[in-house]
């Protein structure tokens, strides 16, 4: 593949097109102007200004997805400017992730063997068609540490995989052809349901029998569950039954001790239990495994690279302590800078950061609603939301997961009935929903919710813990994904753990709301403030997703936020293509030095597009293999249904001790009741931009192996695993999962 | 025979003797078709598998008593209704539910006019926000509140041993960064348990002297989540009225039966315990879990808990003690182990010790130390532990490093105690009773309930502005007087202090306004002495004229 083509095509969607020659009225990011009312939409597809948004988004995806056979012919001025940008990037010495000096895959899509996944380099010398298991094992010996390609990058391959094929990119964006929710839920065979129920009944019966005899014959082991010396048991045998008798059987799948960075791969300590999982003994050895369990959507969990360097500089300057509560002289300039940046990032007026993601919800909700207010909550909302609502004293109604009809029915019901008994109207109604549900992988139907909001006048509290950074062409969450104005949502909440490789959470909203929260939130008054190195990691990673201006040009629309324009600001606002622009460099700390690839946003963009590809590829691939997979295909969380409780530990173990010839261990998270409904226990893959396509191929192969062995393909298998791997790009670009 | 008689018997009659005269002629075809219809249904019913069983059951249940069958029918209907009923409460069936037409609902929806999400800030709100200082550059004992402003001595931030600016901890943090990165990217259950988490837990438990410990990623969330992990509905919690806000929230979530005792009053505690005991004996019933919740050094006023007495009562009445040492850990005792060390009571006798690594160790997060059973229980049942990302690696390693320093350098605690003494001596002359020589001062301006060895010092105004009848404090005015003192010491003595910030209207017992001082052992004696003098002068200047 000619190199120039690759540059220009990958640049087609690279954001910082306004760096040089583009006219100032052009929108900054061609891919994001979904709002059809915006005059800027024309620029995206050159002359087709009035094309419907569906057509546009599919065109965008074509633009973003070059093919070998069809070098992109749609050369526009965007592409020209982008290639200039990438040449600037090449000149930079510490340009590290989009490696210009590596080879590209020349794989043929028809080849159906392990070799098809292997990028040229090591494998090119081997005969691709007949590799023996031993050959494959040899090739994959150091698979997690050493890339198949040569690279100069300073980021370790084990933390962030090097993957250069520009075809393996996608833009996370709402395609109106694709339903937000599947029209019908996939159902397992009745036999599976029956065996699952029988398994649980069996587990419960055996558990009670063991308890019955255990209490009589080995009372010492039950001492902590029984009242003794006049003290009631701290934890009654009834309350802990599930933990002791069901969860303990799977104990090895949970809380495996690890070390190092939870990046693309992770090092687990090997452990054994000799007393039925009551205690574990470390064997002293470790295993490096491919990590599809950690929330590391954009791959910013890293011990090297631009962000880590910035954090190091911060530790030297600030130390590690956030010290006391924000109001007690522990608000640093760094806090204010982070808050300004977060507000820009999510497209809100103002933002506030809290030192723990869980506490962000649990300390904010009580400051917003109280007695006489109603909270309407999705039934699958996170525990922190439920905790916060309970603290607030507001009434609670919950609606069926993502069921908009049920929501509307409840809204009509509560507004017409008013408060119970008194029938007074509710003071406020707050709808609390999540953008992306962490156990289901399902997306919120935000356009529909906003429609309901206009009719029923409730407020929206949108928890974007998992969607921020992971969804949308600009990584700004579900508002970005659906192309709606984030300011239509009253409160945006999110965390820094998942996409930014830090910890803590934020709340963003209008200035008035945020001021009230700053005064009334428990966290600002009583909880420790977030520590400086974490803030730096947030600023560096967020800045690199946004790009920093300069070197990028400040989009004209953002000027009105600075209140520098008074008279003609109205006309400027109407031209605003999007609320998402680069971060103005003056709001970043002056001491922070970021490398050019982070400053100009190429790195961030690359990560967003890799994550989008990976998510869609694995989700579609697993469906084709006949697994039952929940959630939206653009979701980086991919739950694969297991059902039978007995299969859970097996699945986890077989992914770790691989049967396949490559022998690369994979760590997965299995989730069961109470985090999920009793029968739908599942394994949950959390994908990351740090995974290469080859990693996803491995996961597919491993799932195929194990799924075949454990009889987990409950759906209809339409493709073999080799077919899936060779047609990855087609699967991703197809607009329907079927 | 009238027409309204039992239709079945009529039909039987019709079938057997169609020529019967008493039925009006037009009804005969109707009745016969009805009969054949019933016959078809019966035939069909008999073909259904299991139908003889149902018939037999109905016959045996009927027993010539129609009321019996009616009752069973009623029960069946009730069961079906229960099954079909909505899962959530208030699903539109309650007594006060009013059935409305769609049009009426539409009108009500149009009329619905909710309050704004956030009301306009009141002057008090703006005052609160405007008086929050921002620190430019690093935090520590010397700070700047504007980029080019003068350097202030920081008496507002808890930094008892000067760990904030400790270079060794910075080195440890950088080492950790190079091996572990920044975030852990997951809750502890899902590959978020790093080896150093296990290490810091072991370090904490061996330092304090308990069997085990569990760390949380925020101290405030720890306190409000660890309590409801154990105390459930029906359990009894006896709590000090002066406990901090986090505990209040934990008690609220637990839904337990909460009894308050007067702040710091051991006699009242015993009285409450006796009352509970008496009530339990009177009512009988199951043995429930009973907890005493208190703080080592109280966050709201710096007072110390009389731990020996509490231990005695707890053992006597068989309570478990949940001791919040978020302030006292890293501040009290010869090595900073908290008030257990201060009183020489083994920490293993306290059931749960909650501590903050943000205050005492200047990193972040909190811990709960206790027995193996207590800690293991929280790993599965404490919501803030299960559902939250684990503590960032560098905060954990720095906590380990800080504990190492505390263990090896007892002089850190002695210099802290010296500084506290110097500072308190300066202010003693303004207190009604001098805590050092017991002399009585008639012109006293302030009262300091804080324990004499406590690094956290709360200063209350002795003559706060009150309403005309003197019954209630004018909180807002009092706070503005305190703010005046804060501003005065900043300009005249280069001190940064803070008044304690409260969430008015969200607190269970409104604490009185106070000035909050944190002394650091890292400050020089000269600085502390000057700070005491400066604060004294400012208090006299602001309050003395009245």
Explain what the structure shows:
The complex is a heterodimer of chains A (738) and B (546). Chain A is an alpha/beta fold and 738 residues long. Among the domains of chain A are: 258-295 and 607-733, Aspartate Aminotransferase, domain 1; 306-547 and 582-594, Type I PLP-dependent aspartate aminotransferase-like (Major domain) (Aspartate Aminotransferase, domain 2, 3-Layer(aba) Sandwich). Chain A has 24 helices and 17 strands. In chain A, the strands form four sheets. A seven-stranded mixed β-sheet of chain A has the order 5-11-10-9-8-6-7, with helices on both faces. A four-stranded mixed β-sheet of chain A has the order 1-2-3-15. A three-stranded antiparallel β-sheet of chain A has the order 14-17-16, covered by helices on one side. In chain A, strand 6, helix 11 and strand 7 (395-399) form a beta-alpha-beta unit. With 546 residues, chain B is of the alpha/beta class. Chain B folds into three domains: 1-37, no CATH class; 123-154 and 412-543, Aspartate Aminotransferase, domain 1 (Alpha-Beta Complex); 164-409, Aspartate Aminotransferase, domain 2 (3-Layer(aba) Sandwich). In chain B, 47% of the residues lie in helices and 11% in strands. In chain B, the strands form three sheets. Chain B has a seven-stranded mixed β-sheet, sandwiched between helices. A four-stranded antiparallel β-sheet of chain B has the order 11-12-15-14. A three-stranded mixed β-sheet of chain B has the order 2-3-13. The longest helix of chain B has 21 residues, at 27-47. Residues 1-15 of chain B have low confidence and may be disordered. Chains A and B meet through strand 1, strand 2, helix 8, strand 4 and helix 9 of A and helix 5, helix 6, strand 1, helix 7 and helix 8 of B.
């Amino acid at each position: 593949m000619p190199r120039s083509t690759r540059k220009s095509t990958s640049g087609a969607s690279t954001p910082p097109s306004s760096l040089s020659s583009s006219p100032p009225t052009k929108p900054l990011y061609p891919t994001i102007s979904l709002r059809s009312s915006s005059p800027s939409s024309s620029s995206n597809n050159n002359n087709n200004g009035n094309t419907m948004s569906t057509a546009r988004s599919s065109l965008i995806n074509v633009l973003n997805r070059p093919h070998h056979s069809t070098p992109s012919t749609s050369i526009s001025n965007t592409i020209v400017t982008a290639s200039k940008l990438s040449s600037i990037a090449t000149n930079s010495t510490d340009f590290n992730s989009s490696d210009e000096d590596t080879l590209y895959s020349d794989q043929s899509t028809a080849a159906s063997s392990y070799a098809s996944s292997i990028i040229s380099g090591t494998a090119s010398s081997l005969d691709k068609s007949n590799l023996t298991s031993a050959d494959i094992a040899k090739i994959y010996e150091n698979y997690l540490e050493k890339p198949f390609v040569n690279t100069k990058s300073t980021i370790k391959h084990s933390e962030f995989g090097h993957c250069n094929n520009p075809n393996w990119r996608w833009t996370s964006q709402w395609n109106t052809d694709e339903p937000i929710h599947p029209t019908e839920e996939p159902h397992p065979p009745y036999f599976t349901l029956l065996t699952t129920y029988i398994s649980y009944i069996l587990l419960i019966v055996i558990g009670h029998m063991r308890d019955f005899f255990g209490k009589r014959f080995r009372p010492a082991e039950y001492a902590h569950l029984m009242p003794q010396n006049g003290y009631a048991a701290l934890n009654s045998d009834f309350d802990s039954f599930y933990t002791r008798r069901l969860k303990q059987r799977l104990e090895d799948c949970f809380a495996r001790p690890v070390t190092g960075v939870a990046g693309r791969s992770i090092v687990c300590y090997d452990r054994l239990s000799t007393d039925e999982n009551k205690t574990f003994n470390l064997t002293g050895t470790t295993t490096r495994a491919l990590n599809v369990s950690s929330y590391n959507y954009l791959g910013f969990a890293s011990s090297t690279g631009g962000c880590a360097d910035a954090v190091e500089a911060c530790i030297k300057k600030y130390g590690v302590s956030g010290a006391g509560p924000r109001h007690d002289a522990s608000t640093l300039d760094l806090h204010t800078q982070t808050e300004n940046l977060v507000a820009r990032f999510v497209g809100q007026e103002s933002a506030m950061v809290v030192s723990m993601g869980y506490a962000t919800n649990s300390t904010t909700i009580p400051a917003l609603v109280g007695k006489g207010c109603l909270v309407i909550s999705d039934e699958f909302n996170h525990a922190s939301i439920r905790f916060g609502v309970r603290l607030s004293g507001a009434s609670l109604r919950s609606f069926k997961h993502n069921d908009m009809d049920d929501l509307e029915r409840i809204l009509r019901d509560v507004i017409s009935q008013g408060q119970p008994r008194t029938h007074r109207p509710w003071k406020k109604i707050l709808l609390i929903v999540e953008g992306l549900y962490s156990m289901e992988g399902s997306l919120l139907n935000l356009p529909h919710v906003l429609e309901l909001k206009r009719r029923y006048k409730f407020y929206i509290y949108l928890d974007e813990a998992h969607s921020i950074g992971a969804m949308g062409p600009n990584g700004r969450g579900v508002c970005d994904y659906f192309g709606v104005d984030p300011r239509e949502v009253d409160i945006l909440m999110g965390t820094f753990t998942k996409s930014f490789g830090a910890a803590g959470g934020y709340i963003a909203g209008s200035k008035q709301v945020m001021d009230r929260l700053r005064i009334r939130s428990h966290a600002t008054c009583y909880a420790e403030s977030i520590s400086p190195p974490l803030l730096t990691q947030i600023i560096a990673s967020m800045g690199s997703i946004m790009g920093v201006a300069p070197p990028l040009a400040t989009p004209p629309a953002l000027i009105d936020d600075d209140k520098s324009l008074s008279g003609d600001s109205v006309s400027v606002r109407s031209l605003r293509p999007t609320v998402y622009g680069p971060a103005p460099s003056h709001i970043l700390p002056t001491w922070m030095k970021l490398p050019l690839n982070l400053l100009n946003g190429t790195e961030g963009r690359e990560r967003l597009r890799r994550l989008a590809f990976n998510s869609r590829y694995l989700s579609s691939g697993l469906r084709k293999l006949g697994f039952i997979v929940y959630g939206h295909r653009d979701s980086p969380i991919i739950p694969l249904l297991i059902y039978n409780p007995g299969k859970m530990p097996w699945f986890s173990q077989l992914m770790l001790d691989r049967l396949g010839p490559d022998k690369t261990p994979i760590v997965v998270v299995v989730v069961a009741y109470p985090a999920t409904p009793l029968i739908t226990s599942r394994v949950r893959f959390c994908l990351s931009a740090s995974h290469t396509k080859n990693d996803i191929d491995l996961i597919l192969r491993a799932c195929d192996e194990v799924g075949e062995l454990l009889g987990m393909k409950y759906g209809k298998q339409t493709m073999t695993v080799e077919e899936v791997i060779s047609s990855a790009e087609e699967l991703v670009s197809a607009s329907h999962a079927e | 025979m009238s027409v309204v008689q039992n239709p079945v018997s009529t039909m039987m009659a019709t079938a057997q003797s169609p020529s019967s005269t008493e039925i009006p002629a037009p009804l005969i075809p109707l009745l016969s078709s009805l009969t054949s219809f019933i016959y078809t249904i019966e035939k069909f019913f008999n073909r259904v598998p299991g139908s003889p069983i149902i018939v037999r059951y109905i016959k045996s249940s009927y027993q010539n008593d129609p009321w019996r069958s009616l009752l069973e029918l009623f029960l069946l209907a009730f069961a079906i209704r229960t099954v079909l009923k909505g899962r959530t409460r208030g699903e539109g069936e309650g007594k006060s539910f009013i059935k409305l037409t769609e049009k009426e609902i539409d009108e009500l929806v149009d009329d619905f006019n909710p309050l704004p999400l956030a009301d306009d800030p009141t002057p008090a709100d703006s005052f609160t926000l405007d008086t929050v200082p921002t620190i430019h550059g690093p935090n520590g004992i010397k700070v700047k509140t504007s980029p080019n402003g003068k350097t202030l001595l920081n008496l507002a931030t808890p930094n008892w041993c000067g760990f904030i600016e400790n270079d060794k901890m910075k080195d440890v943090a950088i080492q950790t960064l190079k091996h572990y990165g920044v975030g852990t990217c997951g809750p502890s259950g899902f590959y978020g348990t790093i080896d150093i988490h296990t290490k810091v837990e072991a370090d904490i438990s061996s330092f304090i002297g308990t069997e085990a410990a569990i760390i949380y990623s925020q101290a405030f969330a720890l306190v409000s989540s660890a309590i409801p992990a154990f105390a459930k509905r029906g359990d009894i919690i006896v709590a000090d009225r002066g406990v901090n806000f986090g505990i209040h929230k934990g008690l609220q979530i637990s839904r337990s039966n909460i009894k308050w005792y007067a702040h710091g009053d051991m006699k009242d505690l015993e009285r409450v315990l006796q009352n509970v005991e008496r009530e339990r004996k009177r009512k009988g019933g199951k043995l429930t879990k009973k907890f005493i919740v208190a703080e080592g050094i109280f966050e709201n006023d710096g007072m110390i808990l009389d731990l020996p007495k509490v231990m005695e009562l707890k053992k006597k009445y068989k309570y478990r003690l949940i001791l919040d040492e978020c302030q006292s850990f890293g501040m009290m005792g010869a090595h900073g182990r908290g008030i257990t060390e201060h009183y020489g009571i083994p920490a293993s006798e306290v059931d749960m010790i909650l501590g903050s690594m943000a205050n005492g160790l200047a990193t972040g997060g909190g811990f709960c130390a206790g027995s193996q059973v207590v800690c293991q229980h929280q790993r599965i049942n404490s919501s803030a532990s299960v559902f939250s990302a684990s503590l960032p690696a560098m905060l954990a390693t720095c906590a380990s490093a800080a504990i190492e320093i505390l263990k090896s350098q007892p002089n850190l605690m002695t210099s802290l105690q010296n500084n506290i003494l110097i500072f308190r001596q300066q202010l003693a002359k303004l207190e009604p009773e001098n805590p050092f020589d017991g002399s009585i001062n008639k012109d006293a301006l302030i009262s300091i309930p804080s324990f004499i060895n406590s690094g956290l010092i709360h200063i209350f105004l002795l003559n706060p502005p009150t309403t005309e009848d003197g019954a209630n404090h004018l909180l807002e005015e009092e706070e503005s007087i305190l703010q005046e003192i804060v501003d005065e010491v900043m300009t005249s003595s280069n001190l940064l202090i803070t008044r304690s910030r409260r969430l008015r209207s969200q607190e269970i017992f409104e604490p009185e306004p106070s000035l909050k001082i944190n002394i650091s052992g890292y400050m020089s004696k000269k600085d502390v002495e000057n700070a005491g003098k400066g604060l004294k002068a400012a208090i006299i200047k602001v309050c003395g004229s009245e």
